[in-house]
């Protein structure tokens, strides 16, 4: 009765049935920093996790410019 | 969750707008909003030529895609930085930018820093005191110079970058922590052009980073997913993570932070930069770009030093 969440090269396992958002908060992943996908399709984070499925999380944070500038 | 427009299954929920949309309606909503912001901030018109700085990442390719869809005259500029990081970072980024342009019949100018200046960005950083361990400083300096040069030489009316709201909010946060009023006064969706300096515009500055990412995914745009190898541990990313924790607790916090800043600027909270050429700037005698430094500009000084040190090393038996 578990679901896998994949973020880059990390795989997390959580109980199925909870929402994506609750799973992210439980894993201490900021919901704002990822986009959840199911079978390649974007889903909203109120979707409930299904038993045995794999949810791929697409990281959205990018950056790296030197601080202290007008970007 | 259902799409507010059609009631179908939503692909994205934007908590700060209390708005959920399906794929189809999101893909029309985001370009429509971009058009609105281009007009609102007076960025450019359909009669003007725009140069889009593309990195192969999600934001710049989304921007180029949207401007093309909206019918703007938008060409691309890719700057090859020579960053490998064990993943062929620059090569992969360039491949995606070129594939994007070829697939849409768009014009892309490619400038390879090593070919033009004689060293890659990591090599330049290792040869100068300017960010010896982190090449971000010399990278930013070089990109700004090349972007302006290509925009100016190509006769473009505006130089567009893919900065999103998270970029802007993180910069604002960093500059607020240090009360860098000079940078705060210059941060804006539009920096007007002046003699020798292209007008700079940020059409995506009102969209969250996850929204531009969602757009590229839903549009099927192939972008470089890997982060720049030198971005690991960057202060700007730490600021974004801090702001995202605020956002999770209070949806709309990032948007409000940025928009309140723009409103405060409008009301005169910071000195207004009406033109980018304050008194005291003069053309660099070497490259002709405006500079406040006495003599040659920091770009020319940095790269002259890089080439001189590279020559010294070659001369050592």
CATH topology of chain B: Rossmann fold
Counting DSSP E segments of at least 2 residues, the number of strands of chain B comes to 10
Q: The CATH topology of chain A is what? A: Ubiquitin-like (UB roll)
If classified by CATH, what would the architecture of chain A be?
Roll
**What kind of sheet is the major sheet of chain B?**
6 strands, mixed
Structural domain count of chain A = 1
Numbering strands along the chain, what is their spatial order in the largest sheet of chain B?
5-4-3-6-8-7
Low-pLDDT runs of chain B: none
The percentage helix of chain A is under 10%
Categorize the overall geometry of chain B.
Answer: globular
Give the structural class of chain A.
Answer: mainly beta
Oligomerization:
heterodimer
* Helical content class of chain B: 40-55%
- The ordered H/E elements of chain A are EEHEEE
Explain the overall architecture:
The complex is a heterodimer of chains A (71) and B (317). With 71 residues, chain A is mostly beta strands. Chain A is 10% helix and 35% strand. Chain A has one domain (2-59): Roll (Ubiquitin-like (UB roll)), CATH 3.10.20. Chain A has one helix spanning 20-26, and strands at 2-7, 10-15, 34-38, 41-42, 54-59. In chain A, strand 3 (34-38) and strand 4 (41-42) form a beta hairpin. The longest helix of chain A is centred in the first third of the chain and has 7 residues, at 20-26. Chain A is globular, with a radius of gyration of 14 Å. Chain B is α/β, with parallel strands linked by helices. Chain B has a single domain, classed as Rossmann fold (3-Layer(aba) Sandwich). In chain B, 48% of the residues lie in helices and 11% in strands. Chain B has helices spanning 23-40, 58-69, 89-104, 113-117, 121-127, 136-153, 165-177, 181-186, 209-219, 235-249, 253-266, 298-315, and strands spanning 12-14, 19-21, 49-53, 73-80, 108-112, 158-160, 190-191, 199-201, 282-283, 290-291. A six-stranded mixed sheet of chain B has the order 5-4-3-6-8-7, sandwiched between helices. In chain B, a hairpin with a 6-residue loop joins strand 9 and strand 10 (290-291). Chain B is globular. Chains A and B meet through strand 3 and strand 4 of A and helix 6, helix 7, helix 8, helix 9 and helix 10 of B.
